Amino acid sequence: LHFDQSKSNNIITYKRFDNYINLNFKKNDTTERQKQNYSVQVLTQNSNSIKSDKNILVYRIDMKNIRELFVTLSDSTHDLRFTWLRDKRPDIKLMKNSKYAVNLKAGEVNEFTLKTLDQYQNKIHYIGVSAITATEQTTRSNVIYANFSMIMFSPQCLYWTGIKWAPDGIIIGSKTTENNIHCQTNHSSLFSSFFYTLPDVVDIIEGINHSDSIINNMVCLITVLVIFLIYTTLFIWSKHQDKKDVSRGEIVILHDNYPGEDEVYLVTVYTGDFADAGTTANVCLQLHGNISSSRVHWLYNSNCDVLQRFNDDWFIVFTPKSLGEFKSIHIWHDNYGNKPNWYCKRIEVTDVRKKKKWNFNVEKWFTILNSIENIEHSIFIGTANDWRIKAIDDVRLTIREEYLWASVFIRHPRSLITRCQKLSRIICLLFSTMNLGGENYWPKLFRKK
């Protein structure tokens, strides 16, 4: 359009046109060509169906964000069959059915434009390529492979709405090739395009085809057996520890509570994670509030040892009346046993009825080996570093519970997931990663051959 600038300086904007405008976007020189070379074995007519299914090159494609798919097959050394199926993985029966598959002549360039309706975009689509069955009998030393090249990409035409790039009102034209995107639109805007490149082929059936011989995969077999041996050993150990965690995780009602007392307090004692932080001594505790003080209570559990390293023990204490606001706690032990030294990290006291909590940061050794420390301490509530200690404890608990590998060995006794379950998740994750790694490795090696 030409405007005479001498008559008018106004800008005229055309938003709609009667016919489509053709836009052509050329591929950048820096864009990588997606042409890949593949090989499939040419089988004979008497080959069994399992072996035939293994020799089908399969792409599994999620068409959710793909409007059109362009596929180009060329440089084939043998006649091929090509199919595109929805919610059906190609097998040898479907590949031989002319309703689903088309035959491709050797040496020809075949281009396919695959479009899907909106109601089928959430479905899984499959592309399959196989070699047409050979008429002559082949032997192990005379295996024939059909080599071919394939380019697969999904172009996108977009326009700028003022907020984001959108595909509405702009369609992909019929002149689109691997190096040029043809777009058609009937309105003006800022336009752009891009190539959506599909990932490399990953097909489990093909992976099995290369892994079906144990003799040729002794290293893989030994690796799997060693992993299973380690898993079995750790599983037996984890089962034993899970049984111990049942006792460690229970809430202990202290045996020295008196009947008839109805004020309930939950005392949580956290033992540090230093070496030999747990104790064999008998530990006693007394609570002091602004109204009253509790009796002396012995922190004891008849089912298992308490106050062990990197553990927290929960005790129920009853009192005849409310103790009020807590000011301090008095705690000590009798230095009994072969490892009486104890490192107490902190103690939490919760009024169960009022749902109020008091935190006492102890951070002390209860020992007579050091002149600075003692086996008896009085701890007062409230310090300047409460928030910092609480943050560090939260980080440690997160690592203990959510770090999968470490949680097998340092699992919290009250965790909802057992050690055996965590260990089984690890072995599933490990073998899944190995399997996917093998599936990505074999097709590349196969193409090199």
Automatic annotation (TrEMBL):
Occurrences of domain PLAT (ranges): 263-380
DNA damage recorded as keyword: no
This protein's UniProt keywords: Membrane, Transmembrane, Transmembrane helix
UniProt key word Membrane: yes
Domain of life of the native organism: Eukaryota
Pfam families tied to this protein: PLAT
Descriptive protein name: Polycystic kidney disease protein 1-like 2
